[in-house]
Design a protein that fits this description.
This protein is of the alpha/beta class and about 270 residues long. About 35% of the residues lie in helices and about 15% in strands. The chain has 9 helices and 10 strands. Strands 1, 2, 3, 4, 5, 6, 7, 8, 9 and 10 form a 10-stranded mixed β-sheet that branches.
């Protein structure tokens, strides 16, 4: 196994353990251990209002696993740009991709110093492939692309993964612009995978998220299904299109999927 490369500003290492952080809370809901008491308290307060958030978190991770499996086995993709990766848990992008195609190359992007420290420790690549970590913000596509090009050949088809990250961009028009700028740099035959919390499905979820956003934590904005679908404008959606994530190509033998407040899709750049 080979060590991950890291790219980012020197000295970006301070971790604030006094304020809950969405990546650490998400890790807690996924059953991970990389969090602090303040994150557990915030996570427990959220689940007290809306226990279904744990299902949403785990369904999001399962959607990521299924889309990567499709990209490797059916679309032949071997390069992945995962922006807003969050803390490593089970079935990270490189683990799923390299299990199926060891030569896969993955670049992770996040701006949380705790994610950076864990990326250095845990995101090991197969010998045939590569992983790298870029310390950058989703709102800086130019930096993301420049750093990603040190590991990926962006003249070859690449899958752009934006999993539960665009909700952190307050303005939907800006979020769409970010997607457009990143996809514009990728060649035809590339893919876009997006999933985010959705508004208009579960009022209890919406009230819990609105209360969380008002708590002083980094806010996360739920989008309507139409707003999530708009990220794929100009691309060719893979069936079944933009749906609640448990409904996206469920694995054979899985329990009957239920509609939850998390929608996503996968599309190809023509």
């Amino acid at each position: 196994m080979t060590d991950p490369e890291t790219h980012g500003p020197a000295g970006h290492t301070k971790i604030d353990t006094s304020v809950p952080h969405s990546a650490r809370i998400w890790n807690y809901w996924l059953g991970g251990k990389d969090n602090y008491p303040v994150d557990e308290e915030a996570g427990d307060a959220y689940t007290a209002v809306f226990p279904g958030i744990v299902t949403i978190a785990r369904s999001s991770r399962a959607f990521l696993r299924r889309t990567i499996t499709y990209l490797v086995t059916e679309a032949g993709i071997r390069q992945f740009l995962d922006v807003g990766t969050g803390l490593p848990t089970a079935d990270n992008t490189h683990e799923v991709a390299q299990r199926l195609a060891p030569e896969s190359r993955i670049v992770y992007v996040d701006n949380d110093p705790m994610v950076l420290s864990h990326a250095r420790a845990l995101l090991y690549s197969s010998r045939e492939g590569a992983t790298a970590y870029v310390d950058a913000d989703v709102t800086d596509p130019d930096r993301i692309l420049a750093a990603a090009a040190e590991t990926l050949d962006l003249s070859r088809p690449t899958a752009l993964i934006l999993s539960n990250i665009l909700g952190h961009v307050a303005d939907h028009a800006e979020a769409r612009s970010i997607v457009t700028r990143l996809m514009a740099a990728l060649p035809p035959g590339s893919y876009l995978s997006v999933n985010d919390g959705s508004r208009g499905v579960d009022p209890v979820f919406e009230r819990a998220q609105d209360a969380y956003n008002e708590s002083g934590a980094v806010p996360y904005n739920l989008r309507t299904v139409d707003e999530i679908t708009a990220y794929f404008d100009g691309l060719e959606l893979i069936e079944p299109g933009v749906v609640s994530v448990p409904l996206w190509r469920p694995e054979p033998g899985a329990p009957a999927p239920e509609v939850i407040g998390e929608h996503g899709g996968l599309a190809r750049k023509p």
